[in-house]
Specification:
mainly beta, Jelly Rolls, seven-stranded antiparallel sheet, six-stranded antiparallel sheet, 0% helix, 43% strand, rod-shaped
């Protein structure tokens, strides 16, 4: 009768369970092809009659011992029940982590150059070997984030960092008596995290903290300015002036008509997330000032 219903996904198969022997009427000890634990693992047949375990025979390991030697010419064989195997075909997506022993999967069983999507959580101390290339390692307990190239160099440390120059190769006017934002718009040579906006010549703080900033302004007062005319430069926060910071973040009195001067300054400034820092300049006196964009620099990084 044919099988009705869904074919089972598992069954029992014998892995060569039958073993025949030659009976000679005197031999009582025989060697089994496969070991057994005891007599109950075997079905022994002498003259096609099944024998009683432990009474007619004993067995241990690969040794079968008969109580009496089978007569010459009798059909003498054993069935090794301990060799029965269960074969199972697992369904797709049917194995979960609960079926896998902890630490059972070795490195040899992991795909070479695997692609890991999403978040990979690593605890304790971990080592990357073999020139590992990692785009981003992020510590979820804080703002730690870095990029490591195949040479092991840290390209993106946890703290934002930038350095940029202007692009103008001609003198640009900044007004007499009015603070003018300097255009420092060259693509930054360093811009870790992408927080310097060279299109708008400003740094935008990604997180609250104390930042160290520096600038160099190559400027002058236009020719003809009086001796009392000078130009000055400073950082500005959120384009709203410098109130609350004081004159210590200003660079003053780079004079006078037509003489090229360089103003440099640095300062540590506390910022909230999304605060902006820019560099401004103005002249004071009778004439406007000018700056040479490509010779100006602006940079900084997060201290903590």
């Amino acid at each position: 009768m044919p099988f009705l219903g869904t074919t089972p996904t598992q069954g029992f198969v014998g892995a060569n369970p039958k073993q025949s022997f030659t009976a000679n009427g005197s031999t009582t000890v025989f060697t089994l092809t496969h070991p057994v634990a005891n007599a109950n693992d075997l079905e022994v047949f002498v003259g096609n009659v099944r024998q009683e375990p432990t009474a007619a025979y004993s067995a241990a390991g690969t040794t079968l011992t008969m109580t009496e030697a089978p007569d010459t010419g009798l059909n003498f064989y054993v069935i090794n029940k301990s060799q029965a195997q269960v074969t199972t075909t697992l369904g797709a997506n049917s194995v979960s982590t609960s079926q896998i022993i902890d630490d059972a999967i070795t490195g040899a069983k992991i795909e070479n150059n695997p692609t890991i999507a999403g978040t990979l959580g690593v605890t304790g101390e971990s080592t990357l070997t073999g020139g590992a290339k990692v785009n981003t390692i992020k510590h979820t307990g804080g703002t730690t984030s870095m990029t490591i190239d195949s040479s092991g160099r840290v390209l993106q440390p946890a703290r934002p960092m930038f350095h940029a120059n202007g692009t103008s190769t001609s003198w640009v006017i900044f007004s007499n008596g009015s603070w003018t934002k300097l255009v420092i718009d060259q693509t930054p040579t360093v811009n870790v995290g992408g927080h310097y906006d060279n299109t708008n010549s400003k740094f935008v703080a990604p997180v609250a903290g104390v930042y160290h900033f520096y600038y160099k302004v190559y400027g002058r007062v236009q020719s003809g300015g009086a001796a009392s005319t000078y130009w000055q430069s400073r950082f500005q926060k959120n384009n709203g002036g410098i109130a609350g910071y004081g004159s210590h973040i200003m660079a003053y009195q780079y004079t006078v008509g037509g003489t090229d001067e360089i103003a440099t300054y640095s300062a540590n400034i506390s910022l909230a997330a999304a605060d902006e820092i820019t560099v401004h300049a103005q002249s004071t006196g009778s004439h406007n000032g000018e700056y040479y964009g490509i010779a100006c620099e602006f940079g900084g990084h997060l201290l903590g």
